[in-house]
Amino acid sequence: MRPSGRELNELRPISIETNVTRHAEGSCLIKMGDTHVLCTASIDAKVPPFMKNSGLGWVTAEYGMLPRATHTRMNREAKRGQSGRTQEIQRLIGRSLRAGVDRVALGERQITIDCDVIQADGGTRCASITGGWVALRLAVNKLMKAGDVISDPLLDPVAAVSCGIYAGQPVLDLDYPEDSEAGVDGNFVMTGSGRLIEVQMSAEGATFSRDQMSQLLDLAELGRAKLVEAQKTAAA
Amino acid sequence: MRPSGRELNELRPISIETNVTRHAEGSCLIKMGDTHVLCTASIDAKVPPFMKNSGLGWVTAEYGMLPRATHTRMNREAKRGQSGRTQEIQRLIGRSLRAGVDRVALGERQITIDCDVIQADGGTRCASITGGWVALRLAVNKLMKAGDVISDPLLDPVAAVSCGIYAGQPVLDLDYPEDSEAGVDGNFVMTGSGRLIEVQMSAEGATFSRDQMSQLLDLAELGRAKLVEAQKTAAA
Amino acid sequence: MRPSGRELNELRPISIETNVTRHAEGSCLIKMGDTHVLCTASIDAKVPPFMKNSGLGWVTAEYGMLPRATHTRMNREAKRGQSGRTQEIQRLIGRSLRAGVDRVALGERQITIDCDVIQADGGTRCASITGGWVALRLAVNKLMKAGDVISDPLLDPVAAVSCGIYAGQPVLDLDYPEDSEAGVDGNFVMTGSGRLIEVQMSAEGATFSRDQMSQLLDLAELGRAKLVEAQKTAAA
Amino acid sequence: MRPSGRELNELRPISIETNVTRHAEGSCLIKMGDTHVLCTASIDAKVPPFMKNSGLGWVTAEYGMLPRATHTRMNREAKRGQSGRTQEIQRLIGRSLRAGVDRVALGERQITIDCDVIQADGGTRCASITGGWVALRLAVNKLMKAGDVISDPLLDPVAAVSCGIYAGQPVLDLDYPEDSEAGVDGNFVMTGSGRLIEVQMSAEGATFSRDQMSQLLDLAELGRAKLVEAQKTAAA
Amino acid sequence: MRPSGRELNELRPISIETNVTRHAEGSCLIKMGDTHVLCTASIDAKVPPFMKNSGLGWVTAEYGMLPRATHTRMNREAKRGQSGRTQEIQRLIGRSLRAGVDRVALGERQITIDCDVIQADGGTRCASITGGWVALRLAVNKLMKAGDVISDPLLDPVAAVSCGIYAGQPVLDLDYPEDSEAGVDGNFVMTGSGRLIEVQMSAEGATFSRDQMSQLLDLAELGRAKLVEAQKTAAA
Amino acid sequence: MRPSGRELNELRPISIETNVTRHAEGSCLIKMGDTHVLCTASIDAKVPPFMKNSGLGWVTAEYGMLPRATHTRMNREAKRGQSGRTQEIQRLIGRSLRAGVDRVALGERQITIDCDVIQADGGTRCASITGGWVALRLAVNKLMKAGDVISDPLLDPVAAVSCGIYAGQPVLDLDYPEDSEAGVDGNFVMTGSGRLIEVQMSAEGATFSRDQMSQLLDLAELGRAKLVEAQKTAAA
Q1: Average pLDDT by consecutive 10-residue portion of chain C (236 residues)?
Q2: Are residues E73 and D44, on separate chains, in Cβ contact within 8 Å?
Q3: Fewest C-beta atoms under 10 Å: which of B90, B159, D193, F157?
Q4: CA–CA separation, C81 vs F81, rounded Å?
């Protein structure tokens, strides 16, 4: 049995509240159970230097966690610099979202997705990708409404979910108590139509078989369908 | 006339929602109009090294702003380090809150107040102090309920408000459009009973008279009364 | 009684020696008792990027303390980076001096005031402002003599002094023994004609009343008159 | 056809030269074609603070690239700090190697694996893991020979290989010309007996199907067998 | 007797293997006994900003040591930043090599010499200069063969060797066991024709006479002749 | 002819004013012509960690330059970190002074010599060593007077002077106009009795012969005698 009482293939309750801050071009507060992430999209006319005059757009992401988003307070990254883990996560979010973007259609501009974890209970990078796409969708809508972008550069939604082996069982959408016990876990980033963008499976002090990997992918597909539904409802 | 249509001596609408995150020992989301700050209090058994075995408690504060809390996106401080402005603000918050604490009664422990600006529209340091005190109050309540602290170390509420000369008129609680125009502004930190803790009046490209200073202090006292009322209601 | 034997409203002996270094466009060594600060003014044809082609001048300041300016040796900031306190002080010095400058008359150039504390005995930020203005005055004189600046951009002297409540009494110009004991102290920056530029009153583990604030302001005005006189004599 | 003329399922020539530096407790120079990585293992009696007195051992890794290991010279990380990519890679190497270690049998000591890329032609992180295991094996042999460790803490070899979709075809062990073109690639870390430790599949500006993923895994298993053979020969 | 059994005026065995990496425009692996340094030369069309449009070339150097080049593992400089010692050494290497360069003949381009110590046994800075010149020679040959440079900008070889007082005796080319005991040692950088470029003699907890200095210079001249021979053979 | 009109073998006017700051255990302001350096000695009961319980003392040095000590203002090192040049200089000062110290007689304590350049006109590192020794002498005197140190740990004065080839002539004690033109220059650190501690000769875009080196040493010995005399007078 899972600590939360959920079924093995059951997501946590999802909620995606949009337009939660007045300055960002797109924003949402995504809640996957007790994991809450504020995602904002900021449009900038300037692209990174190496991309100038390419005519191509760029989507990038930054990730942070408030010091007391966690059970015990962590040091503030503004004081000690970004950890390797933080940089790894924000590179993943940016790469994942870009997989769903037609950079020609976007035109030469940059959209920065900020994902700030207000409260953490496992799965923050997946929630950031799922919520980040909604913020991106809303910002792109604004560009299209203003006529700055003509054909929709967002090809397909991008969503992510974690799965892992907990107490010997494959489970969907690990929360913190599961995540801290699981010897094997993975993050699966997928498109709305079920294509894969990123698969990150990792064992700490353990190993896994190809069969187990297959079971986790099955679970991830189940989760993906529900997440994409929630994204579409939120961004409608 | 003020851009918001407020009276000269009118605060923005105040809202203080408590217990907004499940991990912190005390927390609130304070809204002064469109300025929204998440304040959390974290209790730690350890005090800073120079205070060890003194028997005295310590209250300290850290301050941050999400990159898109502002009209245009700012660089993330975790990437570039804390600015001088940020350090100045968090030193002010800590000093202000300590003025209302009996450090003997608190006992040898540290409470860290994190003030993270979710959305900014002027007056973020004042909102941080006012909301920070509520988070502190709730965390101290928890210590007292648990019997870890016997006599109440919080002597009196601590609240803060800004005033300034806008379009030649003294006004209370400046919002961003006012703040960016005002040649003179000040932050006033006061106790519940009206004693002063900190007065910071500052002119940029201008000067002010003692009379004007007196008028701003009068306004600040008006504001303080309302803020303390809101603190007491929230923390009740 | 004050540790130094001074009257409550008595400044420390002031001395301002000018042209103490051969390279700077303006310089002085200001001594407020045992607090000695070397102030230099450096003229640069370049202004900060955001000000380019504005036609406006800029005055900025930097502050430092030699490692053994203090009773016990402090770590060198060049090794550990500028502290929050240092940044806060240099922002204050710059803001204060700019309040006395007509930026149009100055023309598009930058003057940097470096204030380096050779020996510290309390009140270093106030001495830096008072001495910094003299260095600025001398550098501007040079610009005017050379015909690079036509009408005098320095409207009025800018001087600063600290006051505080020491042993229950309001005292003027705190030295280190007083400063380290005072529960309440303040820094007052004023123009030659008595207008206020910056008021920073602060209590650590204490509070103060409006009456006490008024008494400190009265003292500050007394001190200001003497300081401005010394500035004028020095820069004559 | 692949730029190198290799078959789709053909590894580059492997060479693992051991004991290449006289100071390290274990070392090898691994060459996967034109990718050359120097791997050293350093034994330290001290473990990280949080592990002290746990009786458990620790294996960690650091990764670097000489500035001119690449086609055009890169900035030296000692001057600009470790990039997010570098930190991500060294975390992967450490995690991968630990999956093959019995930390109780290792005893309370730390082994640091340094992987420094002398020449780069794609696949440096995989070569680092494969070569890093050989350095680890040699260092552990030394501990066992000295009687400091009794039962072998290395359960099974750990090796890694990349695969990707190049010109529409699944290929094994991408070199730089392939890597820079491939829209999808992955790194597969496996044990000697074929269990999975880490799977990292990633698309940049593309997506992939589960079938493609399966094909890449098939290739990776082929590669793994050859790599483990080379490891065993080298460390014999 | 010297720990290595060498004569007082005997160099360690020298080996200079060229073209050891495929990307660099010039490269060698120099071995002075157990001290092994990889030297690469990278040509860049861009010179430092302050030299732009001067028509003059520039040669600069960077130096590093792999963490386990030494008896016990050192911290990685990419993690903690370059030490003062590292910066001092790389400034010396650059200055030394520039003394042998006709910057007009080189033309407006920069050549960066990277010297990375693979294994250390004393004398790494001297080996870096001697090997660095070979890498520079090979890169310049490439420029001349391509017709990018017409007249040879390398006037004369540049080589370096250390000498010191070990156990009361002047000795040539100190290895680590000698270096860590010697109270006086020096580095001598010379041209192929025996002119001096840099002399750095240094005593730690000791002093030396002019006579001793003369004896060390005599030894250095002996060593220089052999080193330049080896350079010429290698770069032929 | 030298720009200053001095003879080839003539030092600039020397002045060493002692006890110039009230907090330091020893201090002086040394002036070599227009080069002015404030040197302070700070005694600390704590030695660096690796020296603890060795019974040996330690002398170390730090060096800095005020931003406007130079013709044009330099960036403040507290803002950008210590340059390689600064670190090289302070390592030289510390090493030089330690050569004149009996570390057993000093006892387990650390003396830090801070050398801060108030005004620069060439030769700042030499002036720092010469003045630094005076500050050290005064601090040691205080220890001996207090009975904390019994036998004098200062064996012999330590002084330093620069020489160089200017306009084809060997000259003593280069000032800035000479230093910026000289193709060859050197710093010579010597004891009161004429023993050598450190010789640093360096050519930038030039070379020198052994004869020239000998001439510079002759000049340095002349200078050393005068400097040591001035040190003795000052510290008497």
Answers
A1: 96 98 97 98 94 95 98 94 94 96 97 98 98 98 97 96 95 96 94 96 90 96 97 96
A2: yes
A3: D193
A4: 7
Chains that touch B (3 or more CB pairs under 8 A): A, C
Contact flag F205-E88 (C-beta cutoff 8 Å): no
Give residue B50's pLDDT.
87
Q: What mean pLDDT comes out for the span E52-75?
A: 96
**Closest CA in chain C for residue F72:** C23
The domain limits of chain E are: 14-235
D69 CA: distance to closest CA in chain E (Å):
7
Amino acid at site E209: S
Query: Of the candidates C52, C65, C59, C63, which has an alpha carbon nearest to the alpha carbon of residue C25?
Result: C59
Q: What is the reported pLDDT for D50?
A: 87
In a 10 Å sphere around its CB, with 0-12 CB exposed, 13-18 middle and 19+ buried, how is residue F22 labelled? exposed
Q: How many CB atoms lie within 10 A of CB F72?
A: 9
Rounded Cα distance between C52 and E120, Å, is 52
Burial F109-141 (b: 16+ CB within 10 A, else e): bbbbbbbbbbbbbbbbbbbbbbbbbbbbbbbbb
Strands of A35-44's sheet, edge to edge?
Answer: A14-18, A26-32, A35-44, A110-119, A58-65
Task: Quick: pLDDT tens for B46-98.
Answer: 999 889 999 999 999 999 999 999 999 999 999 989 999 999 999 999 999 99
Three-state secondary structure string covering chain C: CCCCCCCCCCCCCEEEEECCCCCCCEEEEEEECCEEEEEEEEEECCCCHHHCCCCCCEEEEEEEECCCCCCCCCCCHHHHCCCHHHHHHHHHHHHHHHCCECHHHHCCCEEEEEEEEEECCCCHHHHHHHHHHHHHHHHHHHHHHCCCCCCCCECCCEEEEEEEEECCEEEECCCHHHHCCCCEEEEEEEECCCCEEEEEEEECCCCECHHHHHHHHHHHHHHHHHHHHHHHHHHC
Q: What is the mean pLDDT of residues D169-174?
A: 97
Question: What pLDDT does residue C104 have?
Answer: 96
**Nearest-CA residue of chain C relative to B186?**
C199
Instruction: Supply the pTM of this predicted model.
Output: 0.93
* SS (HEC) of chain F: CCCCCCCCCCCCCEEEEECCCCCCCEEEEEEECCEEEEEEEEEECCCCHHHCCCCCCEEEEEEEECCCCCCCCCCCHHHHCCCHHHHHHHHHHHHHHHCCECHHHHCCCEEEEEEEEEECCCCHHHHHHHHHHHHHHHHHHHHHHCCCCCCCCECCCEEEEEEEEECCEEEECCCHHHHCCCCEEEEEEEECCCCEEEEEEEECCCCECHHHHHHHHHHHHHHHHHHHHHHHHHHC
pLDDT tens-digit profile of A45-65? Answer: 999 988 999 999 999 999 999
Residues E192-206: what's their mean pLDDT? 93
CATH superfamily of C14-235: GHMP Kinase, N-terminal domain (3.30.230.70)
Using a CB-CB distance cutoff of 8 angstroms, which residues of chain A are in contact with residue D87?
84, 87-88
> Mutation test of the interface with chain F: which of E199, E216, E217, E218, choosing the one with the most F Cβ atoms within 10 A?
E199
Q: Which residues in chain C have Cβ-Cβ distances shorter than 8 Å to F37?
A: none
